[in-house]
Amino acid sequence: MKAGKLVSSLGMVSLLAVMVACNDESSGNNAENNNGGNNNGGNNDEGSAEKANIDFAAWGGPEEINELQELVDGVNEKSDEYEINLITIADDYPTALQTRVAGNNAPDIFYLSQEWVSTYANSDVLLDLTEYVENDEDLELEHYYEDTIRVSSYDDKLYGLPWISNPVILYYNVDIFDEAGIDYPDESWDWDQFRDVAKELTKDLNDDGRTDQWGFTTHGWPPTHQWIWSMGGDVVSQDGEVLVDSPESIEGLEILNSILNEDESIPASNTIEQQGLAEMFKAGRIGMFMGGAADDLDRVEGMNVEATVVPKGEERVTFNWLASMVASADTEDPDVTYQALKDMTEAIHTWKIVPPDSRLADTVLDIEPRKTESAAQAMTESMEFARGFSGHPQQQQIDTIVWDHLTSPLIEGTGSPQELAEDTAEQLRNLLEQE
């Protein structure tokens, strides 16, 4: 394992990783907890000593971890080969995992969000699953949504099985639309219609000269990529070509810049920072919000919220937050570890939305019955065109440059889309030329 190489390549945890940790309701302490299992030979039941011990590291808040432990127990009961020991990392998962890897103490299997897969794979930390999957007659990889496999791969090799996908969909406040007499958003909407309606929904409700209701809100979420992709552009291509300053990318940035700085349809930055993006929507002050499929925005007490797919540009695309189950290259018994990884991943598919396996598309409401039917439909439809980041060994540094030189200045209105795109492209090319 090239632990030193990994340590030098990781650096700052990306903003996205921090946002994801918050969305996963981390419990806020730094302890690692062993939930069941035993590192020294499993439980003491007769015959269990021959089982291989598989350490499994995961993130999550207390309730989520309790549910995950039940899944682990169920998987363990069905196996004669292994005993999975759940290790929960409650806070700052990327850093804690990096520390374990650097100390040659990597878990056998572990969660890894999409922006880290290429970094770990390039550093020889991960077990190459390609041959295991090819030789597994019980695993039909073609049933996974194609892009979920792409972000679990690096250099034409598969390093993980995706366990969750969370595409961005468009939530909307039904009562605000009804009050304005405007038809609800649907799959026919493009960015022009979206912007027009957002402006129309922005109002001073009590005639005091101050805006009380806004049509939309955004402040770095969804990622800037969402708008770039929709116009046929990209930040960095799959093969490492910098495209953020292409005409298509700049066209997407022009749309985002208009929303941020021209349309007057979103709250001021300081208001968003003080009150929160999703919180303002939940307070009934925002007409439309782009949130993750698994968010609770459609079950806020006292609110009537439905959902649909995001607006389209030259093509329809939405950001997908993805995470994979991966294995350590240093695991003692790779064959058994692969089996545990696969079994655990398939168990999670019955617990978390949206399952990356297309055969489970109709199970969203079974897994999470609190979702509205419109949200469930938007999720499954979005999986057909949702995508994650291109995936690059220096994804964290790429994310930092994009935030510092593009997204943040756009929010602040301190440069034109073309100027900022050109500056970002220069920074990215300098970074990637150092490889």
Structure description:
Strands 1, 2, 3, 4, 7, 8, 9, 10 and 11 form a nine-stranded mixed beta sheet that branches. A two-stranded antiparallel sheet has the order 5-6. The protein has two domains: 232 residues, D-Maltodextrin-Binding Protein, domain 2, CATH 3.40.190; 192 residues, 3-Layer(aba) Sandwich (D-Maltodextrin-Binding Protein, domain 2), CATH 3.40.190.10. The chain starts with a helix and ends with a helix. The chain has 18 helices and eleven strands. Helix 3 crosses helix 14 and helix 17 runs antiparallel to helix 18. With 435 residues, it is an alpha/beta fold. The radius of gyration is 22 Å and the shape is globular.
Describe the secondary structure blueprint for this structure.
Elements: H1 3-10, H2 15-23, E1 32-35, E2 52-58, H3 62-78, E3 82-89, H4 93-102, E4 109-113, H5 114-122, H6 130-134, H7 146-150, E5 153-154, E6 157-158, E7 160-173, H8 174-180, H9 191-201, H10 225-230, H11 247-261, H12 269-275, H13 277-282, E8 288-292, E9 305-308, E10 318-327, H14 334-348, H15 364-367, H16 373-382, E11 386-387, H17 395-412, H18 417-433
Parallel strand pairs: 2-3, 2-4, 10-11
Antiparallel strand pairs: 1-3, 4-10, 5-6, 7-8, 7-9, 7-10
Helix pairs in contact: 3-14, 17-18
